[in-house]
Specification:
Strand content of chain A: 15-25%
CATH superfamily of the largest domain in chain B: P-loop containing nucleotide triphosphate hydrolases
Distance between the termini of chain A: 30 Å
Strand content of chain B: 15-25%
CATH topology of the largest domain in chain B: Rossmann fold
Helix content of chain B: 25-40%
Oligomer: heterotrimer
Number of domains of chain A: 1
Number of strands of chain A: 7
Strand order of the largest sheet of chain B: 9-8-23-22-21-10-20-19-11-18-14-15
Helix content of chain A: 25-40%
Shape of chain B: elongated
Radius of gyration of chain A: 18 Å
Number of helices of chain A: 7
CATH architecture of the largest domain in chain B: 3-Layer(aba) Sandwich
Number of helices of chain B: 23
Number of domains of chain B: 3
Chains: A alpha+beta, B alpha/beta, C alpha+beta
Order of helices and strands of chain A: EEEEHHEEEHHHHH
Largest sheet of chain A: 6 strands, antiparallel, barrel
Structural class of chain B: alpha/beta
Chain lengths: 205, 554, 362
């Protein structure tokens, strides 16, 4: 997977998120919490930005058969890990979009079409999108249903602080943490969970 | 003066009400403000003046305060968390507000309608949310309390945090009765000297001081430090006469300007009734006294009664009693008891000069009089002399005022009667019988007011207390005393705490309708520096900042 | 019960015929008169022989091939025909991940457009079978000498699809045989694995064996088929004797390429499961090769417990199958290409373009 090549295609989408099916081997599994962009078909200069909030390896009856075996030949293990096109389903939470007017932390006006390809964001794209505005996209992560917000923020802030530091925007990380504290002052459990995860992520600022 | 006086913002308004006061989030460190701090809030072209009445450590969720999260999250994240979730909230009692208009030079200034208040008015509205809160600066303090340089203003102390001079308005001080309170040892008598000095020096009023303990005329020695401090006579001799009770009395080895003796005819039945407690008089006494006045007239009853012989027969008490239809035993008992009065050396049948008239004369001419009681320091002396004297003074001022209003006579000189141990005269039982409560209540219109000085304000009749315009109180330990000082004032609950937490020796709380707003101040010191500044009035008032020790304990 | 009785009868007959040394010759003679009868022919092994699972102590390379096809659908916006074949290479005992080769061929749209008649599904299946063998032959050529090479396909080696003749069929038969020749030259241990077979080749042989002269063949043992017969005969892991295959198409092949078969019980002691394994003559003639194949298939079927089917064949199928999503994706690619070339969907040049489009992935 690289930023030029798509790593999956959308199989369903709504206004807030989409599900991407992906057949690949283990090494190429996109990382949890990484940022992706989705070019929207038929619209030049329009892209949706998203965050990988869940990676699910679909169940497979054949694997279930293999899993019950007492011993498996090494070649079979290797085959299943390297070759087998295990269906991987990614859940992508939309964070905002970009059009000819620039970045926006509002949700895209329409969801992308099915089978649209998904691309990984490069460092520059991450830095540009996350430095836009005032962390408005955090609300999408906080409002996400069935997403581990604490883990997502820990990974997202760690990855993004690397991208921001590369742009000499060292203040971003601290501002991001402050914004989270402001947003979650009234949610003690939620906030301490996120800050605890940030502590585990060993983020420096 | 409308320039940017903002100084340093210490917080912003987050809520509140006129009834319960304002709440502000502190953005400075918690120790940047104190209870009683004088703060200013600027909002919408208005300036709100208020007092910090409480500080509270708060958190956006109590669990942020209860749990020491920095230990779990590490110092960096912990610090960011605490910066936003833990804070200090201050409660502000808004007291005054003033429309000041927008800043000159701004677009709003060009448009605004010049609707500005020349002086602050009581708070009737509130500042907007997030209006900045800052400590009052010297300009604010003088805007509210007046410029200490002005002739009718007297700098009584300075604000506690910034040391800005705080003045009291002597005009107002003498227009209504006032009070100086404080537990024993809080420097009350020095504070009184300070104020009396300012008052006399300003010529705003003549002062009659009932100096029960001989402190004010010639000064005395501090019991704490053994240092001699000057009296009013020492420094303002041309405006102060010292008068001693009794013939040939010396005060601390010094000769007074004149003596005071009372003639028997000065004593009225009400003066005796007032001594019921001291003389252990019976219930029948008012009847007997009334009969005496019927028999001998108001001027001579005392002399004639005391000349009646004991026993039977003509010229005896018994004979008079039978004639006057009075119980003989009661009359004899009264006569016996009144011997304690007639035996007083200062009570004479005929005085060589009319001392009371002299005192009134001085006072009318604007000269203040310190009446030292010398060796006569019993309550009986104090009650008898003050009452007789005050009654005559009152009559004189009433007469002069009536003449002033009616027939174009001269305007009476404002008179302040300073009463030490005021509760002896103004307690609940006594107040109805002495001249003082009436002065406190209604003599304002006759240009006579009281300056009540006491360590037990709770024992003063509350109707009198509520008449006191300016109240200056040092530390009070007793809840009842605190309640008494605050009686009749709004915001009692918040002021109560402030009063009980004053520094015992250097701080006083200004309050009452005589002052624009309540304010705790560090009081000025009664020392050489004070006199130097007072007597060279042109010089700017100067305070040395931050000496924590009380002058008299150096 | 009729079935049990007939099974006992069949087994009894099998054993009695096996004990008769003259039986194979007599059978040859009988079949000489019935050349088109599809049935088993005794080999040099006794027909009731049960060969236990051999110990497999050699490293093997196993290739498995499978194919899938997309039949053109006239209702699609872009109608496509497609054959996808996959070969998986599995080296036993190496621990190395198997390698997969797939090959996708788009069919010439001229072959299924309305004006030129259309390809039947069977015809496409034939091409698919040929493509499988060709890919298998090509991959076999890339193997190390010295390591025995087993090559497996799913289903019979014999081309059933030949029954319907159509123009141009012969070229695929030729290509098919060429591929077998390549495998033969390299002595690849080729086998076709038929899971749960429903054939009655051996039962038919028994019926014919007891046929008197001039009698019409009857179905004496119905409903007993070969699976039932060998399930009753073979213990877990055992294989049957190798049988020759009497059929017309088999006779048409070169002798070296003709197919034989044996049955294998790849179930366990509780649940026997019979598979038929078709092998070409060059394998049938090599007992050591049969042992290797027997052991190899047993090992493969035991990887997925409870579902005895060779692992590698399942994987070849997975690699070859074309999902609906993949089909749509290919159609989208074609549409996009049309758009880029500004081709209308009914235009001639569109068909031309399609011919050039083929996607090879690995």
């Amino acid at each position: 997977m690289n930023s030029e090549n798509p790593f999956g295609r959308i199989i369903s989408a709504n206004s807030r998120e989409c599900v991407v099916a992906y057949r690949t081997s283990e090494q190429e599994i996109p990382r949890f919490g990484s940022m992706v962009h989705i070019p929207v078909q038929g619209a030049q200069d329009f892209e949706i930005y998203g965050l990988v909030t869940d990676i699910q390896i679909e169940e497979d009856g054949f694997l279930r058969q293999l899993a019950t075996a007492d011993t498996l030949p090494a070649e079979v293990l290797a085959d299943n890990r390297v070759n087998r096109n295990v269906p991987i389903v990614l859940r992508i939470l939309f964070l905002g979009c970009r059009d000819e007017n620039g970045d926006s932390h509002l949700l895209p006006p329409t969801p992308p079409l099915t089978l649209t390809a998904i691309f990984r964001c490069n460092s520059s794209e991450i830095a540009h999108f996350t430095a836009h505005g005032n962390f408005g996209y955090f609300r999408h992560i906080l409002n996400a249903v069935n997403a581990p917000a604490a883990e997502l923020f820990a990974v997202h802030i760690r990855l993004t602080s690397i991208a921001q530091n590369a742009k000499h925007n060292e203040g971003w990380t601290r501002a991001a943490v402050e914004e989270l504290i402001t947003l979650l002052q009234d949610d003690y459990a939620g906030l301490t969970a996120i800050l605890g995860a940030l502590g585990d992520a060993d983020i420096s600022f | 003066m409308n320039g940017n006086m903002n100084g340093q913002t210490i917080g912003y308004v987050t809520g509140g009400s006129l009834k319960e006061g304002l709440l502000a989030r502190l953005t400075a460190a918690p120790d940047a403000v104190q209870e009683g701090g004088f703060v200013v809030i600027e909002s919408g072209g208005r300036r709100f003046y208020g007092l910090v009445t409480n500080l509270r450590l708060d958190a956006s969720d109590p669990r942020f305060a209860e749990n020491r999260n920095e230990q779990r999250l590490g110092p960096r994240i912990g610090r960011l968390l605490h910066q936003q979730t833990l804070f200090t909230e201050i409660e502000i009692l808004p007291v005054l507000m003033q429309r000041v208009g927008p800043e000159p030079g701004t677009a709003e200034f060009d448009r605004h309608d010049n609707a500005i208040d020349p002086t602050p008015v009581p708070v009737k509205t509130l500042p907007a949310h997030h209006a900045p809160v800052r400590p009052a600066n010297a300009f604010d303090v003088s805007e509210i309390f007046g410029d200490p340089q002005e002739k009718t203003k007297f700098a009584i102390g300075s604000t506690r945090e910034q040391n800005h001079p705080v003045a009291i308005d002597l005009d107002k001080f003498v227009q209504r009765s006032s009070g100086i309170f404080g537990a024993t040892g809080t420097g009350k008598s020095y504070l009184t000297r300070l104020i009396l000095a300012g008052l006399i020096h300003s010529r705003q009023a003549a002062v009659l001081v009932f100096d029960m303990h001989n402190e004010y005329g010639f000064g005395d020695t501090s019991p704490d430090t053994n240092i001699r401090v000057p009296g009013l006579k020492d420094k303002l001799s041309d405006r102060v006469k010292v008068c001693a009770l009794g013939r040939g009395t010396t005060i601390d080895g010094r000769t007074p300007d004149f003596d005071l003796v009372l003639e028997q005819r000065d004593i009225l039945p009400e003066d005796i009734e007032m001594l019921t407690h001291e003389l252990n008089l019976r219930d029948t006494t008012p009847n007997t006294l009334a009969a005496l006045v019927r028999s001998f007239g108001p001027a001579n009853w005392f002399k004639n009664f005391m000349q009646l012989k004991s026993g039977e027969g003509e010229g005896s008490v018994t004979e008079w009693a039978e004639k006057a239809n009075v119980h003989a035993g009661a009359a004899e008992s009264l006569q016996n008891k009144l011997r304690r009065v007639i035996d007083r050396a200062y009570v004479v049948e005929k005085a060589p000069a009319n001392c009371i008239r002299d005192i009134i004369g001085y006072l009318k001419s604007g000269v203040s009089v310190v009446l030292s009681f010398g060796k006569y320091d019993s309550d009986l002396d104090y009650l008898l002399v003050t009452n007789i004297l005050t009654r005559q003074i009152r009559a004189a001022w009433e007469q002069q005022t009536n003449a002033f209003h009616g027939s174009g006579g001269a305007k009476p000189t404002p008179l302040v009667i300073a009463l030490e141990e005021a509760h002896k005269l103004l307690n609940r039982e006594m107040a109805a019988q002495t001249a003082f409560s009436r002065i406190a209540r209604e003599m304002r219109k006759y240009f006579v007011t009281l300056l009540v000085i006491d360590q037990r304000p709770s024992q003063i009749y509350d109707e009198v207390m509520s008449q006191l315009g300016t109240r200056i109180s040092g530390w009070l330990g007793d809840d009842a005393d605190i309640a008494a000082v605050l009686s009749g004032l709004s915001g009692r609950d918040t002021l109560r705490g402030m009063l009980s937490r004053l520094q015992p020796k250097e701080e006083v709380l200004l309050l009452g309708y005589g002052v624009p707003m309540p304010l705790p101040v560090r009081s000025r010191r009664y020392d050489d520096q004070f006199w130097k500044e007072l007597l060279k009035n042109e010089r700017p008032v100067h305070f040395e900042k931050g000496k924590p020790d009380w002058l008299f304990e150096e | 019960m009729l079935r049990e009785q007939r099974l006992r009868d069949a087994i009894e007959l099998l054993r009695s015929l096996a004990a008769d040394p003259a039986f194979p010759a007599r059978m040859q003679q009988t079949l000489g008169a019935l050349p088109s009868e599809r049935c088993a022919i005794p080999s040099n092994e006794r027909i009731d022989r049960r060969i236990p699972a051999p110990i497999l102590n050699k490293r093997l390379t196993i290739l498995a091939a499978d194919g899938s096809q997309i039949n053109p659908d006239r209702h699609d916006l872009v109608s496509i025909g497609l054959i996808n074949t996959a070969v998986i290479r599995y080296q036993t005992g190496s621990g190395v991940s198997p390698r997969i080769v797939t090959q996708t061929t788009l069919l010439d749209p001229d072959d299924f457009t309305a004006d030129r008649g259309s390809l039947t599904e069977d015809q496409i299946a034939l091409r698919r079978d040929v493509a499988e063998r060709e890919l298998l032959a090509a991959e076999a050529g890339k193997s190390d000498a010295g390591v025995p090479l087993v090559a497996l396909t799913d289903g019979p080696l014999e081309l059933f699809t030949l029954r319907q003749a159509y123009a141009g069929q012969q070229q695929y038969i030729d290509r098919y045989q060429s591929a077998l020749q390549v495998l033969f030259q390299q002595h690849v241990l080729l086998a076709g694995y038929i899971d749960r077979p429903r054939a009655d080749l051996v039962v038919r042989m028994l019926e014919l064996a007891v046929l008197r002269q001039d009698e019409t063949p009857t179905t004496t043992f119905v409903p007993v088929d070969d699976s039932l017969l060998f399930a009753g005969l073979l213990q877990a892991g055992e294989r049957s004797a190798v049988f020759g295959l009497n059929s017309r198409s088999n006779r048409e092949l070169d002798e070296a390429l003709r197919f034989s078969f044996f049955y294998l019980n790849c179930g366990d002691s509780q649940r026997p499961q019979i598979a038929r394994v078709e092998i070409p003559a060059w394998v049938a003639a090599d007992p050591e090769a049969i042992d290797l194949l027997h052991g190899c298939l047993l090992a493969q079927t035991r990887i997925t417990e409870g579902v005895p089917y060779p692992y590698i064949l399942h994987r070849a199928h997975e690699c070859a199958v074309v999902t609906l999503a993949e089909k749509e994706r290919i159609q989208n690619l074609i549409l996009r290409e049309y758009a880029a070339q500004r081709v209308t969907l009914s235009g001639e040049s569109g068909k031309q373009r399609l011919k050039t489009l083929s996607n090879r992935k690995s």
